[in-house]
Amino acid sequence: MSAKINNRILIMDDSVSLLKVLSQTLSQHGYEVETAINGVIGLQKMETFRPALALIDIMMPEMDGYEATRKIRSAYPDVNIVVFSAQPASVVEKQVFAAGADFFQQKPIREPTLLGIAKKYTDSKANEEAVEQEIILHYEADQPYTVHIRTCYFCGCDHVNFFVPRKEAYDESWANGLFPVYTPKEGFQRWDFMRTMIAVCPSCLFASYDINDFATDTKHTAFPYSGDAKRILSRGISARKKMISAEDTKIAFSNPNRNLQRVLEAFFLAEKSGNGLVVGDKEGVYCDIGFYTAIHAAIKYSTNQDKIEYQNSLRIALELFANQLKIHNMSRITRAKTYYFMIALNMATGTSIRANEMKQELEDFYRKIGGTDDAAYEERIWNERLLHIWKEGVNNDIVRVCDW
What is the pLDDT of residue 227? Predict the structure, then answer.
């Protein structure tokens, strides 16, 4: 006989409207929910309801969240406790964990985050597989992309939106040699991929176009960068926010329908102050900054049509990729990516002789590896992309005429 699953959740908050929203959301997804408007009532319901998870707001009358957490932790040590508040984590987090909470979540709590917490902290054994899976927002049948909710490795923000194209919805082309162009298949909506391909953490503004630079959830945030890199980026948060003049970055960058101006600022952030602060500390960082620079230049060119500025920006990107090759012991995928973009950028800036030399170096590189299936697959992918630009060259004007 299988063990009985405890999916009961008790929510304590003095906002009746918020209790109603949270309760309805959780109930619709199969959870048993009880609510309390303060800690005193919450403790009374703990005895009879016996939840697997208690969601507790800090600011409540009669008994605040800190005291309620301490009493629950003492009387019911097996209950999972998640405390939430509108106050910043830097202000309350230390006291929250000292009181005995398992996790702190800053308000507002979005539905994907709420459901992720519920999965994680109700009957952990029964939901172990669910916890391993990242949250993907609901999408319509004709929607050409999915939105994955990821967690930032740097600051722990758990609502980073990452747009992922659905393979069945688009044909991918690298014909212009700088970045992919997606042509929608029949029956699917058009999608402005160019303006959504870089994800930006709405809290600390870390930016990346690689989904693996963000954790699947808050349980899997083993930091993949060096300790120095994390410290440097942490110190630069306020400076980066000032740089892009974004006061309310949470609204600006967590909205899936963010506008062109905000995305341009995101690219600018990534190019000038995102990974750029950790040059040399993380394998592939020059390659990342070079990519950001090229994409930023392409989007800007699509709006101002300043070809001289565009070409100059591509040359800057080329120099960044050249710096990447100076880093020793990088992975083969990073090295191949670097070669690919250097070939494309050399052709885009009219230095085809150097492009040919780089192509030969890439072929020699894979020839030396040889033998492994995954290396052969990587080589085939890069060769398919290079075949387009080697035959047709790089069409810079495609940036201007494409409906980004």
Answer: 54
Looking at 132, 148, 178, the residue that finishes a domain is: 132
**Is the pTM above the cut of 0.85?**
no
Instruction: Please name the amino acid found at residue 123.
Output: D
13's tokens: 């908050």
Residue 143 and residue 264 in one domain: yes
Cα–Cα dist 337/343, whole Å = 10
Per residue in 295-351, pLDDT tens?
778 877 877 888 899 899 899 889 988 888 887 777 788 888 889 889 989 988 888
Q: Distances in Å between the alpha carbon of 176 and those of 199, 311, 347, 385, 398?
A: 23, 14, 10, 9, 7
In a domain, 1, yes or no: no
| Torsion sign (Cα): 290, 232, 85, 120 | positive
Half-sphere exposure of 233 (CA within 13 A, CB side): 28
The domain in which residue 70 lies consists of 8-132
- The answer as to whether 62 is a domain residue is yes
∠ Cα 236 114 197 (to 5°): 50
Q: Which residues contact 271 (CB under 8 A, 6 or more apart)?
A: 289, 292, 293, 296
DSSP per position, 269-306: HHHHTSGGGGTTTSTTHHHHHHHHHHHHHHHHHHHH--
- The per-residue pLDDT for range 199-253, each reduced to its tens digit, is 877 777 777 777 877 888 776 665 555 555 555 555 555 666 665 555 555 554 4
Contact yes or no for 240/154 (Cβ under 8 A): no
Q: Within a domain: residue 289?
A: yes
> How many domains in the chain?
3
Residues 236 and 193 in one domain: yes
CA distance 364 to 338: 14
Could you tell me if residue 3 is inside a domain?
A: no
> Closest Cα partner for 42 from 17, 16, 71, 18?
71
Q: What percent of the chain has pLDDT over 70?
A: 74
Length of the chain: 404
| Pair (147, 225) in one structural domain | yes
Query: In the numeric block, which tokens belong to residue 128?
Result: 């172990």
Look up tokens 């306020």; give the residue.
Answer: 238
